[in-house]
Amino acid sequence: MTTTLEETKRPPYGIIAILLLGAFISLLNETLLNVALPSIMKDFDVTASTVQWLATGYMLVNGILIPITAFLIQKYSVRGLFLTAISLFTLGSLMAVLSWNFPVLLSARVVQASGSAIMMPLLMNVLLNGFPIEKRGAAMGIFGLVMIFAPAIGPTLSGFLIEHYSWKMLFYVTFPIALIILVVAIFLLHDKKESMPIKLDGLSVVLSSIGFGGILYGFGTAGDKGWSATEVYLTLIVGGIALLVFILRQLKLDVPMLEFRIYRYPMFALSSIISITLTMAMFGAMLLLPLYVQTIRGISPLDSGLLLLPGALLMGIMSPITGKLFDKYGARVLAVTGLTITILTSYMFSRLTMDTTYTTLMLLYTARMFGMSMVMMPVMTNGLNQLPARYNPHGTAMNNTLQQVSGAIGSALLVTIMSTRTTTHVGELAGSGLAGQDLVNQATVEGINDAFLLTVFVALIALVLSFFMKRSKPGEDFRDQKVASKEREEDQDQSDMEPASQV
């Protein structure tokens, strides 16, 4: 029996299940390769800066393609888009399995990313349109389970596979799963939507690619090459100018590629700001903790991944529960509670020492993830709930794009803070009796502490903003407001003319 997306009271559970599987494997793939980078460096005899392109390239393709998904979702059917996305992802996985040199592996990651970029906004849009507003919290809670749980277990799974097998085993795992999802989707995924007669503005695509791509690349390489590097500040400047021109062009187009006027809806605008600050804090911590655990403390990649696993499992368990609590109590109570926990645990992470126990690190990280599980999905869902249905594709594309950008900014900012403060602490600790590697390790720990302290202040901003949140319901379409305003003006003009005509 086929699954059909129709205008019925019953949500399209079959379609959602297939899309969830696709989203899960694509998100798992994002973090799966990070632990394997040293092994790939050795096998292909490439430098650290070269191998990093496997992660940077993936991020860039996502950042460039995600803004275009708002147009794609409006124009094409769910079936067509998902089959294209999962086919690209499957092809990329096969290329990675067969890769015999680094350029082929990098090309495989780019192909994978081009499929992955479509899946998340597509799934979010189906969830928003498939459930009534009073049940969206529970639906988005399931989505949150995938969005958070999949990338969180990536390092643990990757650490296990790398320790026992070759790095290619990562793709031997993802390829057959992706292929099965593709086959299932071909036979079971159907919907009746026909292609809409809207055209993609070519100049908008170019400006978006340069704008978001430049900003992502600039911040993505700033932590490694430093802010003074020409390619860093040049790409940031070019990206910033292109993004500004892109936004101005979207505001002038009757059918924009990405609708920025959705920021007229206050709850969506507020949710975006809170999500940006929280993503910066979360992504930075996901970078800092493994650095402390593996580089400073010498804990193996597998044990490092296991350290993060309880937090990932708890976050996955909490996501559907949080969704139901959101439907009952709204976003503000959850956001305030979750951000308070996040701030307290982030502060405790800023007190790390060379002797902090493995158990303490695990408990702190798990508690931090518990706090964040109460914030991310409720805040995002509350913002999307205020958008009229026609703007759901733009809202989901905007949220996913901002997540990519804020993650890159947060990582670059925290790595910069850590590096500069480590240099400062080396000078301060010079007379403490420490020398050599012990001095460097202690200074690095202090630098990591300072970076974690910054996440406390970032989360504090989000906490203050969360007090202004209100339960959302769909607002009036601003295009309808414009039409109504024009009609009122015409009526007023007509009424002004009536006395004169009577005379």
UniProtKB/TrEMBL annotation:
InterPro entries for the chain: EmrB-like, MFS, MFS_dom, MFS_trans_sf
CDD domains: MFS_LmrB_MDR_like
Subcellular location: Cell membrane
Disordered as annotated region, ranges: 476-503
Keyword Cell membrane in annotation: yes
SUPFAM superfamilies linked to this entry: MFS general substrate transporter
Record keywords: Cell membrane, Membrane, Transmembrane, Transmembrane helix, Transport
PROSITE patterns: MFS
Keyword Membrane found: yes
Pfam families tied to this protein: MFS_1
Stated name of the protein: MDR family MFS transporter
Organism: Alkalicoccobacillus gibsonii
